Amino acid sequence: MASKKNFIRRYNSATPQNVVFGIFTSDEIKKLSVVKISTPLTFTSLGHTLPGGLYDPALGPSQQGIICTTCSNSIFGCRGHMGHIDLPFPVVNALFYSNVIAFLSCSCLSCHRILFPEARKVLLIAQLKLLDRGHVVQAMEIEQIFSHAMSMNEGLSEEAFAAIVSGEIDKQTEVLMHDEVKTVEDWKQVEVLRNQFISNIKHYIFKGKNCPKCKEPWKKLKTVKKRIMIEAKLEVANKFKNKTSKSGPELTPIREGGFVYLLPSESMVHLRAIWANEEKLMKEIVPVLKSVSGPHPTDLFFMTVVPVTPINARPVNFVGGTVVEHPQNYVYKLILQDCLVIRSIVHLMNTNKETNKENDLLSSERIRLIEQLKGSNLSEKLQISWHDLQKHCDSLLDKSLGSGSTTAVTDGLGLKQLIEKKEGIIRMHMMGKRVNFAARSVITPDPNLNIDEIGIPDRFAKKLTYPVPVTAWNVEELRKMVMNGPNIHPGAVLIENEEGFTSRISADDVTIRESIAKTLLTPDENSLSKGVKIVHRHLLNGDILLLNRQPTLHRPSIMGHKARILKGDKTLRLHYANCKAYNADFDGDEMNAHFPQNELARSEAYNLVNVSKQYLVPKDGTPLSGLIQDHVISGVRLTMRDSFFTREDYMNLVFQALSFIHGDIKTLPPAILKPVALWSGKQILSTVIINLTPRGKTPLNLTSSAKISYKAWEKGPARPWLAGGTPFSDPKIMTEAEVVIRGGELLCGVLDKTHYGATPYSLVHCVYELYGSQASSQLLSSFAKLFNAFLQIEGFTLGVEDILVVKKADKERLKHIKAVRRIGTTAAAKALDLPEDTPTSELKQKIGLSYRKDPKFRGQLDHQYKKCLDTYTNNINQACLPSGLLSLFPNNNLQLMVQSGAKGSTVNTMQISCLLGQIELEGKRPPIMLSGRSLPSFPPYELSPRAGGFIDGRFMTGIQPQEFFFHCMAGREGLIDTAVKTSRSGYLQRCLVKHLEGLTVHYDLTVRDSDNSIVQFRYGEDAMEVMKSQFLNKDQITFLADNLNNVLDKKVVEQLKSGSDNEFIERHMKKMKTWKKKHQDQPYRRSGFTLFSEEMSLQHSEKSHKKINKKHGRSKAAVKISKMWCELDEESKKRYEKRSMKCPDPLMSQLQPDAQFRSISEKLENIMNNYLEQYNITGELKEDIKDMISLKSCLSVCSPGEPVGMLAAQSVGEPSTQMTLNTFHFAGRGDMNVTLGIPRLREILMVASKNIKTPSMEVPFHQNLHKLE
């Protein structure tokens, strides 16, 4: 007997082409139903299901042991059956509220005609028919036929004009209407266009008081909470008689403000009559009506029968032996109770109690219940109960629609709630779900791993398994694993036979394991299928795992890591270099690990999402992995000029970095031979770089700079050279700030964060560009191990000595602080436009008055304080940093950290050694209370800067309690800002991803949406992928030329040239060169029309002609010139076209860049030509550089299938999490701010409003203007 798995493999499922949704009619629901539900009760007192209840056995078994009475299957075999509830009165189907309201509100309820002009109806029907057949353009152009007919037939009657329009449209569209129906899936805007056509006709609705057809008064309709109300006149008081129910009770309409409610039964009658007159139009507007057979298709808008879902969709839950019903039952019970109440009221209204008491079968309890209902009489009670029934039926589709009933739906879920949001069935159970073969734990750092490795506890390794087919090549290894069993690593957990049945390997019985191991290659005698056995082995070293840290904001949030099994650990071990990609730290963060389960998934993980392949971020092509903190410090200390090592230390450090190399390691001769052979730190790094250069490649050449400025290394003023010679034009040359690598050897400069951090065009980035991702990952891993080993030898610490200031600088600081404490009166006087010698009491009084009267005064006062305080803050900082420190760079470890980019910034050093400065909240000084105080410890309207949040203290010597409180206020603002922006940026990213996820690059290099519509003819207009084209710019061409042998593969170039149209390319380039030479003065491309416009605009230079018309956004002159061009004869147009001489199209638009060699963008061609001219390169080298750039361009073309829409969404969404929520405030203008950060992004992408909150304009000044203070 074949296994279930093999059966599924053999099953060929159909591939659906499209999905069409429809609506069941009441008759169809009854045919599908197996039982009528009539009672709200579900179980008896003994716990048995009630027939006719919501758990009737005919709907399916409710628990194990019960047999379905419909199909005679158990709970496992029965697929469930539908039931139904008969409603006493019809209710509106909640899906069609808008349709019912729209049709009734635009129709006359006397003659039942839709009050649009007949010609407009004909036009709309034709447009919608054409759209359905896929003729989108013709549907848009048909309105021109209508406009032409209208202009030619003015004054005709409506019917006559409609007949003419119908004839004209039929004549124009006769062939199209008889075409086979096409699908309109090729253009996604069809539904938008359809809605636009329908909304256009609403502008032409009849606006008179009496119907133009029957001359009866046209009653207006309005809706209140989805209830339709109609104008009530005295003569329609008895309009409800004999119309509302089958038994014919008389209803008195409920009045509200001159309107009465239009009941669903009346709406049904009206729509039936409207259908009889307007069938064609209604069919086109609501296409679902076409699929309904019967005399009254509009009954589809109403419900007389409610379907009841099978029991397996509403399963019973047992909690502690008690039956708990599904929440969905709550809504069904309310509907059933409403039905019983309505039937009871109708029974009472139809029964005469005085003459026929024996017929009254209602119990006294039921009568008391009816008496307690809202309403003064039975008629009102019936209408209110009917309204409740409507709301409860609405709740089946959308719970929020049932809020207006007397018994609001608190429990249960509507169909909308089952589908929508994160908890809905699509997002929770289909788009994402819980998975097997995954692990989750806290992450801890491990610098001894390679950057593409992940440390896995052996406890996880024993649980995560991989299915390996048994072959003659791996049987010995698998036998050992089977013998080890599930508890000894490396072992095996399961064995799967040829038919797909699995059995667990025993952990205790060695004999069973031996027998399994011996028969791994022996086929089963009873097996019907040919195949091999599969062993589910433990996770091993080198297996690939997908690591993920949530939130998954961009592509590198999931990367492939090779497993390294660690005995005894319980946490995942991650290398520091990956922290930026995952936005991870080690303060309790957790990560998920997923183990791919087949060879295809493993191949993708190794080759596509491996850490080494994710070195560059897709957002802007900048590096993502890099060494941080301790490694940066170690790297700087190691490469400084005074770092020398003995042979033993040199060999030890080199081996730490290159321990994975099998074979000989190339070493360098010592830098110093006598008295002792010594190697410099630069030589150690050079040895690593040379040994990691791939075979067949030449070591790289690089000229760059370090992050640490050359000024930091200066010990005194520059002096002339003792041996003479010309001084360098650039002071950076031959200093530690200039990094020079030749032939893989570091000759000059210190390597810091700029070269092995996550920095563009760093040493590691250059290695990635020349040698590939594997070489750059190895280099980073080797550097990390080397720096780690060196730091263990050298050590690094930070002490009080690094923050102390010399006495002279401290005195200077105190002098400035005394002066700044007296600045308050000056700043306040300037803000109030008063003299500086104004008494303090008067200033305080004026400030209090200004605060109360002028809301903008706070901003003006803040501006003056900041302006005055900035000077003093800068003076204090200059006095102490960096020359005022007791220990100077590079001996000052804090300065070394900051300058090298390891950790911290200049602001940190200022706050430690100088002062904290002005505290700001939302770009302003801390606000004052109603009492005029910023804190209770200050007097009202205190003028000193300290009261306004200026802290002249420093962390080294401590700050006052008030200053500490101000500092905490700023810190709290940051925490709240972080908490709030997380949810906003998350929703922003979700919106972006959902809109752009369909955009991909196709084989013709166009960017297309999921419906194949073109969004861009070339991705990014040049078809270049951001990550591949980082070095194709004017600053990096020199680097590529210096490493020409590594970039240029002449064999590949010859093959590409042989397959390209070289003659056409040369001809086109000459043509472009000729045009550029002739039109050097022309800054832009011109056409005949633009040339004509330039000449004519000189003749229409009056101001009145230049005034812009707001309707079409053009001036009188522009409109006149356009008309003149249209009326111009063809010969004159040709003369203008000849004079303008159109520029040849770019080469990339003629030849596809990935198929034709030398088909490069104009910008890249200009960069290449400028470089060749600048360095005067000629001959063979010139051709080689051209070939190199063309080859690089060809390799940089974006690959077909690249999900560029998703990458674009992630590239905007991920950085938005780092943005601030606050608006940016202009210094000195409290009333003037600019919307930035997440609010600005939301304004652009989600609101897309024409009226932006803070419009701004950049106005450039003329050159050579004097600077004004």
UniProtKB/TrEMBL annotation:
Domain RNA polymerase N-terminal: 299-639
Locations listed in the record: Nucleus, Nucleolus
GO MF terms, alphabetically ordered: DNA binding; DNA-directed RNA polymerase activity; metal ion binding
Gene3D superfamilies according to UniProt: 1.10.132.30, 1.10.357.120, 2.40.40.20, 6.10.250.2940, 6.20.50.80, RNA polymerase ii, RNA polymerase II, clamp domain, RNA polymerase Rpb1, domain 3
EC number: 2.7.7.6
Superkingdom field: Eukaryota
Alphabetical keyword list: DNA-directed RNA polymerase, Magnesium, Metal-binding, Nucleotidyltransferase, Nucleus, Phosphoprotein, Transcription, Transferase, Zinc
A Gene Ontology cellular-component term: RNA polymerase I complex
Pfam families: RNA_pol_Rpb1_1, RNA_pol_Rpb1_2, RNA_pol_Rpb1_3, RNA_pol_Rpb1_4, RNA_pol_Rpb1_5
Protein's UniProt keywords contain Chloroplast: no
Alphabetical list of InterPro entries matching this protein: DNA-dir_RNA_pol1_lsu_N, DNA-dir_RpoC_beta_prime, RNA_pol_asu, RNA_pol_N, RNA_pol_Rpb1_1, RNA_pol_Rpb1_3, RNA_pol_Rpb1_3_sf, RNA_pol_Rpb1_4
GO biological process, one term: DNA-templated transcription
Stated role: DNA-dependent RNA polymerase catalyzes the transcription of DNA into RNA using the four ribonucleoside triphosphates as substrates. Largest and catalytic core component of RNA polymerase I which synthesizes ribosomal RNA precursors. Forms the polymerase active center together with the second largest subunit. A single stranded DNA template strand of the promoter is positioned within the central active site cleft of Pol I.
Alphabetized PANTHER family for the sequence: DNA-DIRECTED RNA POLYMERASE, DNA-DIRECTED RNA POLYMERASE I SUBUNIT RPA1
Family that this chain belongs to: Belongs to the RNA polymerase beta' chain family.
Subunit structure: Component of the RNA polymerase I (Pol I) complex consisting of at least 13 subunits.
Protein name: DNA-directed RNA polymerase subunit
Native organism: Homalodisca liturata
